[in-house]
Write a sequence for this structure.
């Protein structure tokens, strides 16, 4: 009995320390990696800027979902599958981080943030 109690306490402590990972995450990638993914697999390119910014220039194929409009309903309308590969960008990289975290918090599992269109070296369209 004396051996069982310390063992049980140790098990309880270890279970409490590692089992439940509640950290909401997304991956940050380079623009080159994002472009490679766009060229080789099915992705959703998500622009999280405002409508006027999107209208001025955006990455071809990008869909607009302003960061301040992200909620469960709006995200589901643009990203119907929670496991879809989503590439997120904004103007400079700040809003895309916020949006990526919000999407991860809504249960999306393949979110990749790649910064801003200001430094995008590839094609854009009006």
């Amino acid at each position: 009995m004396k051996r069982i109690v310390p063992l049980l306490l140790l098990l309880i402590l270890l279970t409490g320390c590692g089992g439940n990972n509640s950290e909401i995450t997304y991956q940050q990638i380079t623009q080159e990696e994002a472009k490679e993914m766009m060229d080789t697999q099915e992705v959703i390119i998500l622009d999280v800027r405002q409508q006027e910014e999107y209208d001025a220039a955006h990455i071809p194929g990008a869909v607009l979902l302003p960061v301040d409009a992200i909620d469960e309903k709006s995200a589901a309308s643009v990203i119907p599958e929670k496991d879809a590969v989503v590439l997120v960008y904004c103007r400079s990289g700040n809003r895309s981080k916020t949006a990526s975290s919000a999407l991860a918090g809504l249960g999306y599992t393949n979110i990749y943030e790649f910064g801003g269109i200001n430094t995008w070296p590839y094609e854009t369209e009006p």
